[in-house]
Amino acid sequence: MAEAAAPETPLLPRAKRGPAQAAAGQAYRWRPLLVALACAVLALALLAHGWNLLRTHTLLDADAELIEAASAQRAHADQIGRLAALVAADTAGRRQHAMALRALLDTAAEDATALDERLARQRPLDAGQDRPVAQAWQAWRAASERLWRHGRELLRQTDAGDGVNLLPAMLAVQAETTPVQAAASRLVAALRAEAGHHNARHQNQDLLGLLFGAAFLLLLGLTLLEPTARAVRRQAARLQEQAAELQRLALVAEHTAALVLITDPDDRIVWVNDAFARVAGWPLADASGQRPGDLLASPHADTEVLARVQQAVRRGRGARHEWLHRSRDGRDLWLDVDIRPLHGDDGELSGFVRVATDVTGRVQQQGKLQALWKGLPAGVVVHASKGEIVEANRAAEQLLGRPLAELLGRDAFDPGWRALREDGSDYPAQELPVTRTLASGQPLRNQTLGIHTPQGELRWLLLNTEPLFDAQGQISGVLSCFGDATESRRLNERLTSSARTDALTHLPNRAVVMERLQRAIDHGRRHPGYGFAVLFMDFDRFKQVNDTLGHGAGDELLRQVAERLLRALRPGDAVARLDDESRVAARIGGDEFVVVLEGVHDAQTVGVIADRLLADLSEPYLLGSTPVQSGVSLGVVLARGGEGTADEVLRNADTAMYEAKRAGRGRWVMFDDSMHERVVRALAVENDLRRALKADELFVIYQPVVDLATRASVGVEALVRWRHPVRGLVPPVEFIGIAEESGLIDAVGSFVLRTACLHFVRWHGELGALAPRHLAVNLSRAQLKRGDLVHEVRDLLQETAMRPEQLQLEITESLAAQDEQVQATLRGLKALGVKLALDDFGTGYSSLACLHQMPVDTVKVDRSFVRHAETVEYHRVLIEATIRVARALGMTTVAEGIETEGQAALMLALECDRGQGFLYARPLEAADYEAWVRQARAAAMPA
User: Fold this and answer.
1) DSSP state, 667?
2) pLDDT at residue number 669
3) Under 8 Å CB-to-CB from 381, ≥6 apart: which residues?
4) Residue 118 zone, left/alpha/beta (φ > 0; ψ -120 to 50; rest)
5) Could you say which of 69, 138, 689, 725 is the most buried, measured as most Cβ atoms within 10 Å of its Cβ?
6) In whole angstroms, what is the distance from residue 667 CA to residue 654 CA?
7) Number of H helices, E strands in the chain
8) Of 563, 664, 567, nearest to 622 (Cα)?
């Protein structure tokens, strides 16, 4: 310890020495009273001096502890800033960094409490002074509490898993780090100044005491030599104690975390502390006599900074700089160096002391944050206390359409922004997110804001704000973080429209029709006598047009029908426009159109409209250069009051339309209760179907589903067929609807499900790797509404030993949007592990915006969209949007009805996962499918 203390003496101010104590006056030896008085005065002086030394010891000890504790708080702030950045940036190690940050916040708070207690203990010892330490302490304490609060908020966001809000919370922590370090530095400086004041004051007191003692010893020497000698020895002992106290102060410099070195007037090193030797790699023995600039020079350092520092040293002045240094082992270190000149008692320059703090981590972290600031895809803007922009990143320039020079100084209330609310109305300046945060000091999240760029573009932003505070806790500005929400808003608007509009004809779809019917029924219940009419149209030769001229011609026919329908309905008659609240015309599927006329009370008016529709819609159509005659059959329902449901009204109109077809087509028929022919036919089919279920006339065929990229078979879809002993093959369209109405669909669905599962398991045993990976089976509305469907599927899986994930149950859009009972069934199937698919997507009334609410794993794009995707931009865009949304939700996509290589290539380019259609294979019976799989495998093997 003595060896380490030897070089420390240049660090410490030396106390001035003087005479021992002042004498009260020259006394005569022969006067005992004078001797007694001198001894009494000497005793009092020695007691006072001893008390002063004890007080000095206590203050110096307390000062050393306070300086060390305050320095530790500055280091804590730097470490908190680095850990906060790691929590936000390092996803893999976020939990570990969060734990370290939480521990560091606790340690910093405990150390701060200890520092408070030490300050409280010292205050009574120095109550007579006006202490600047109290002001520095209050500023540091306020800044530290804000830093800890933001740090704990960051931990809360991390624990909540809120990735979106981590960056603003981390930036808030970073914003408070520098004020805490600055406040801690000011507190250290104030404590050091107070320590110097203590030392100087007690030196002066010692000097006065020594002068007084010298005078007194002179008097005592005239009276009694021996007592004087003893007093001198006692004074020497006191001086040794003072030297020991000063040596303890030197230990503070030796053991502080800061790098300390002392140079002579020529700026050559004469002393370094252990921290310097450890960090820089230069112990005193090797560093002595060298210049710091030469010893620690880095080839990458700023030479201009070095030149300014050297010039200040040559002039005997202090300097403060942050500079890149190089340690002895070649590591580059960023040091915050404070250089102060040292002067002797005579005022002459005796050297320099450098106190340096290693800020490498902070500088590197600042570099990373700067890179993050520049590279962030989100716009970030910093507003001052009055709302003016003081900083903006590159993304903000791009999103706001202005360079940084135009943004700086521009405030949030500038009318040039032409800010809009989410509904398109003007955004008042006092309600802007930045204004509200400045006024309340509270952050805002997910604020939608529209602005007009100088290029004339309306851009929608999704914006978050975070308040910024100064060292006194007053709001000093706002940080705004925003992203471009323009495209997502446009897409949502298009999807909202497409969910209620037929993609081909741009007429309203079935969903709108059902809404209008229900509205009319509800109105009739409230107003007896109110009536409305429904006209249900079906075109007689539409299928023939499709089969002979192709689907493109069929689509063109439907578009022309829609145009004529709108022209034929005069404004006073009935529909056409979505914005007309009293009428609507719609395409509800295939070649079926519906007109709803609200407020119609008599059959004569409806008959006039029906006649005009028949006349206009029966005129020849020109499809390309081919004239086509397509008659229309029209069923009419005139409803009065609020009886029945929307489904019943539409079904009655459909029944009347079929009656018109039966009566000879090209006519309209008003529905009445005497129309039983369709019911009779349906009953006959129902009876035949009941017999068919018992006679095993139903069978299952399978259409392969392939991977679009490899064209390898990945699964099959099970389809039901009916081989009637008299009528031959009966298409599903002729019996599925009747099966649903009669309740037989439940038995049909169970038959298909069980048969398909048994075939699937058999294939896995016989075909091995060639067997399909999954089996898709369609579910009906009746099956979904049945309470025991989940149990049936579970029992079947157990019986066949089929894994749940191998089974995919398909439902239509309308079924997916059914009541809570259907939703509960779907959730139960999902709980089993069975996959769910949304079939024929795009033909119902669901929108992409609602897709995330459906518990499905796969989305199947309807064949009507795939068929026209190459030629109709709207279809291609809708398919692309569907695929993107499904992919974002983690869903698989399947394109139905692929018939050409062009369609397959387009679906693959749009990143659709799978496909099925005649291009790959028609639906096959089980034996034919096995042969197809083997043939496909043989064709794929190299020759």
Assistant:
1) S
2) 92
3) 389, 391, 392, 393, 396, 407, 479, 480, 482
4) alpha
5) 689
6) 14
7) 31, 27
8) 563
The answer to whether 724 and 762 have CB atoms below 8 angstroms apart is no
* Structure confidence at residue 572 (pLDDT): 46
Radius of gyration of the chain (CA): 46
Q: Which residues pair with 27 in a beta bridge?
A: none
Alpha carbon 396 to its chain centroid, in Å, reads: 18
pLDDT at position 7: 37
Task: Compute the distance between CA of residue 643 and CA of residue 673 in angstroms, rounded to an integer.
Answer: 14
Read off φ and ψ for residue 554, nearest 5 degrees.
-65, -40
- SS3 category, 819: coil
What is the C-alpha to C-alpha distance for residues 705 and 712, in angstroms, rounded to an integer? 8
Backbone angles phi and psi of 911, in degrees to 5: 70, 30
Q: Are strands 774-778 and 713-724 parallel, antiparallel or unpaired?
A: parallel
CB of 749 within 8 A of CB of 780?
yes
Residues 101, 108: Cα–Cα separation, whole Å:
10
For residue 667, the domain's CATH number is 3.30.70.270
Residue 228 has a pLDDT of 58
Cα angle: 812, vertex 818, 824; to 5 degrees: 105
> Which of 364, 351, 292 has its CA nearest to residue 326?
292
Q: Which residues of the chain have pLDDT under 50?
A: 1-29, 125-130, 572-579, 845
Q: Give the residue from 341, 364, 387 where a domain finishes.
A: 364
Residue 278 lies in a domain: yes
- pTM listed for this prediction: 0.37
Query: Are 730 and 610 in a shared domain?
Result: no
843 and 875 in a common domain:
yes
To 5 degrees, how large is the angle CA 466–CA 468–CA 469? 145
In this structure, which amino acid lies at residue 222?
L
Q: Beta-strand (E) ranges in 284-348?
A: 319-326, 332-343
Q: Do 38 and 170 fall within a single domain? A: yes
134 within 8 A of 63, measured Cβ to Cβ: no
Residues whose CB is less than 8 angstroms from the CB of residue 175 and which lie 6 or more positions away in sequence, other chains included: 150, 468, 479
632-640 sheet: strands from edge to edge? 583-589, 592-598, 531-539, 632-640, 668-670
pLDDT at 642: 72
Largest CA distance in the chain: 159
Residue 260, helix vs strand vs coil: strand
CATH number where 348 lies = 3.30.450.20
Rounded to whole angstroms, how far apart are CA atoms 90 and 933? 48
Q: Quick one: which of 172, 141, 142 has its CA closest to 157? A: 172
pLDDT value at residue 12 = 41
- Residue 354 shares a structural domain with residue 389: no
Structure tokens at 562: 């829609």
Q: Which residue has the tokens 């893999």?
A: 92
529 and 641 part of one domain? yes
Q: How far apart are CA 455 and CA 457, in angstroms?
A: 6
Residues 820, 837: one domain? yes
DSSP helix/strand/coil, 185: helix
Q: Which two tokens stand for residue 606?
A: 């409806």
CA distance 721 to 727: 13
Q: Tell me how far apart the alpha carbons of residues 250 and 259 are, in angstroms, rounded to a whole number.
A: 14
Q: CATH number of the domain that 819 lies in? A: 3.20.20.450
3-state helix, strand, coil in the chain (%, to 5): 55, 20, 25
How do beta strands 444-452 and 458-469 pair? antiparallel
Structural domain boundaries, residue 726: 684-940
Dihedrals phi, psi of 549, to nearest 5 degrees? -100, -10
CB contact set of 345 (below 8 Å; sequence gap of 6+): 14, 16
| Claim to verify: residue 660 and residue 693 sit in the same structural domain | no
Residues 617 and 696 in one domain: no
Place of tokens 């943004």: 407
Distance separating alpha carbons of residues 857 and 859, to the nearest angstrom: 7
Select from 821, 904, 812 the least CA-distant residue to 867: 904
pLDDT at 668: 92
